[in-house]
Structure formats: C-alpha cells, structure tokens
Design brief:
The complex is a heterodimer of chains A (260) and B (146).
Chain A: E1 3-8, H1 17-30, E2 36-39, H2 46-50, E3 55-56, H3 67-70, E4 79-83, H4 90-98, H5 101-106, E5 109-117, H6 121-134, E6 139-145, H7 153-156, H8 159-168, E7 171-175, H9 180-189, H10 193-197, H11 220-238
Parallel strand pairs in A: 1-4, 1-5, 2-3, 2-4, 5-6, 6-7
Chain B: H1 15-23, H2 30-41, H3 47-57, E1 83-84, E2 96-97, H4 102-107, H5 128-145
Classes of the chains: A alpha/beta (260), B mainly alpha (146).
C-alpha cells in the first residue's frame, strides 16, 4: 500500500503555510480522502484552531518529528498532513537529513512538501533553505500567495528559485488575495471556506461544525464570492491530483464527506 | 547659464528592463515598475513618469517594441495550461495558469539544486532578461538529459 506524508515547509511565519494546508485538507476531504492531521506547531497551533480533530504534537526534541513516519508505517493510515513549526527550520531540517528516504520509498512512502511564497524576500529564502536539504527526495507543491502583493520577485527572478523550478519541477497553485474583511472574519472565527459553503445552515449563520459565522460571512453574495475563490484554488489542485495523491482520472464521488 | 543639452529621461538606461516588465503577461503595472526601479536602482520616479516614458516611445505605433503584439494574442509562456478568470474581490489579480498536465509532471526529469542554506538573504536577483535566459538554458539542459 502506498502512503503519502504531506508537510508544510518554510521557516518564515505568516507566509501562508497553514492557509495552504487548510485548502489541501478541505480539497482532499471533498474528494473522499481523510488525511490524518498532525499539528507540530506547538507555539501557534494554527492547524488545530481550524481543525480541532488534529493531533497536537509537543515538540520536546527533534525526534518528536518521528511521528510523521510512525503514523504511516505499520498502520492503516495512508495519508498524513503535518503542519510544521515556523522558525529557523534548522532543527526540523536536521531531522529530515536523517530520514531514510530510499528505504521508505521502497515501502511505498512518499513525501510532499507544501510551500507558500509571498512577496517577502524572506519567504523565498527560507523555503529555498528547505529545498537545499530536501532536494529531489520529496515532491513539491508551492502556493504562490499573493496576499502581500502580486509580484514575487524573489521567487520569479532569482537564479536559485529558477533553478529550483526547472530542476525539481514543483507544482504551483496561485492563491489570490482574498477580500481583507472576509479574511479577517475567517481567521477570527477559525473557519475554513469549505465549512461555510458546505453548511445547509449557512444562511442562518452556522457552519457545518456548528460554529457561528458572524455577521458578514452568511450573506449570500459573500458566500458566492467565497465559492468562486475556492473554486479557483480547487481547479488548480485538480491538476495536482497525482501529488496529493488522488487518481489522475478519478471517478471518485465528489460529494462532501463521502469516501470512495 | 541654461544647459544646451536636450532633455534625457533618467529612465533611458532602464528601457530594456521596463520593456521586459511590460511584456510580461499580465504586464507589470506602471506603479509597480516605479517601485521596482526604486528598489533595484534607487531612482525615484512616479508611475506617471514611467507611463509617459513608455507612451512617448510608442507614439504612433499601436504595437510598439515596448508593448509587443496585442496581449490577448500573445502566446502564454505556459501555453499548455488553461487560464482561469479573475477572482471577484481581488481586482489586481489576473489570469493564472491552471498547471501542467499531471502526466508531464510525473515524467519530467528532476535533478538537485545547488543552494547553500543561509540565515541571511543569499539569493541572486536577475533582470527579467537574465531570468528568461537562465530559464531557457536550463530547459535546454533538461531536454538534453531526458
């Protein structure tokens, strides 16, 4: 059986790693996959805020990351998504240096690195730091996050980033800037777009998880814009199915919460 | 005494760079070009100055060397990919690629990247022309290997 470990990467906080992870999670769930969620960011706990069912991992030492691999080996959990901690990245990268990728690959375990790049030079620098260690041992799903600006010069026109894009063939998803008011509400209320749109009580201000939607998000036109926004992201993830992994020519049921 | 030298725009040395930025699809806005010139070269110009600079050089030519062919007929550099429309609520975004086909991604050769881990910024910024040249070079190298 093949297993996939998706993990967020990049040391710079606020670059949108957890946002990218949220979209991947809701996309997977809406395509019948239910990844095991691991929140290894014991400082911010961002993933857990939006997905309380995520397993929180206390990062007492570098080997605490072993849980990423332990959960797929010898278990019936073929898909894991881990939100790693922002920071210098050296500790977790030293852990990755010890991972026997070849041996795991022989057992059908693959890794997908989810990165998020903004217009900040630091976000490109910190992500490429990770690439320098991970190299071609993982696949890459890179979100180009336009939240701080439409131009990403340090990812588009630096020689190192160009070499990464050409040599390691990352898959890209462009994440446009969402209306600031909507973004604020989503963050404030710990809501994913998916749980708003999939709620049959959204017009009453209640999410699929029974959470309040506030004053703005239940509005019909707001939900229409969120649906349009999410569709743009999902359309791009459709073309990355092979990474997630979903069958390329999937005939799976696309109903919410229905596993194949 | 008044100088006899004709007026010369401070943007002349950056004409190629400006052309490259305007030829991107979508074109970089004049305001953003002014910002980029300020960041890269330390020159302070308004977006209006950039606009006028471009406009003067395209006077009388609908498809000038600065603008290139009408953009809606320009082959998208990622032309094997679908584009999607602008997301409502974010007028500054533009069409963006859907992504390459999964089969292409799976079959494409991969090779390591030479990059040194650093806590300090150590990326090498290129001009658009240099970036395009490097991309072309790497594409040819990869084509030779596959």
């Amino acid at each position: 059986m093949t297993s996939t470990i998706l993990f967020t990467a990049g040391a710079k906080g606020g670059s949108g790693k957890s946002t990218a992870a949220r979209f991947v999670i809701t996309y997977l769930r809406e395509h019948g996959k239910d990844p095991l969620l691991l929140d290894l960011d014991d400082e911010n706990k961002t993933l857990s805020r939006f997905f309380p069912e995520a397993t929180r991992v206390e990062m007492k030492k570098t080997s605490s990351h072993d849980i990423l691999v332990e959960k797929v080996l010898g278990s019936d959990q073929p898909l894991v998504l881990a939100d790693l901690k922002a920071g210098t990245g050296r500790e977790v990268l030293s852990w990755f240096s010890d991972v026997p990728f070849d041996e795991l690959s022989a057992q059908g375990v693959s890794f997908v690195c989810i990165g998020s790049i903004t217009s900040s030079p630091d976000s490109a620098q910190s992500f490429l730091n990770w690439v320098s260690v991970l190299q071609d041992r993982v696949s890459y799903l890179v979100f180009k996050n336009l939240k701080d600006g439409d131009i990403l010069p340090d990812y588009d026109t630096t020689s190192e980033a160009i070499a990464f894009r050409k040599n390691l063939a990352p898959y890209h998803v462009i994440l446009p800037r969402l209306d600031e008011e909507y973004q604020t509400e989503l963050e404030r209320l710990n809501l994913t777009i998916s749980e708003i749109l999939n709620s049959d009580q959204a017009h009453l201000g209640i999410s699929t998880r029974g959470k309040p939607l506030g004053r703005i998000l239940p509005q019909l036109l707001v939900r229409a814009r969120l649906r349009s926004f999410q569709r743009r992201i999902y359309e791009q993830l459709d073309a990355a199915r092979h990474l997630l992994p979903l069958p390329i020519d999937s005939q799976e049921v696309d109903q919410v919460g229905v596993k194949p | 005494m008044k100088s006899n030298k004709p007026f010369q725009s401070v943007l002349i040395p950056f004409e190629e760079e400006i052309r490259g930025l305007r030829r991107r699809r979508p074109p970089v806005s004049y305001a953003e070009i002014a910002h980029i010139l300020n960041q890269r070269h330390g020159i302070a110009v308004t977006y209006n100055a950039v606009f006028n600079f471009v406009k003067v050089r395209s006077k009388g030519k609908r498809s000038s060397y600065l603008f290139g062919p009408p953009w809606h007929r320009v082959r998208n550099p990622l032309s094997d990919q679908k584009t999607t429309s602008v997301t409502l609520g974010n007028p500054s975004t533009s069409d963006f690629p859907q992504g390459r086909k999964a089969e292409d991604a799976l079959s494409r050769p991969r090779r390591p990247v030479a990059f040194s881990f650093s806590d300090q910024y150590n990326l090498t910024r290129l001009t658009p022309e240099e970036a395009a040249a490097l991309e072309k070079k790497l594409d040819e190298e990869l084509k030779g290997e596959s």
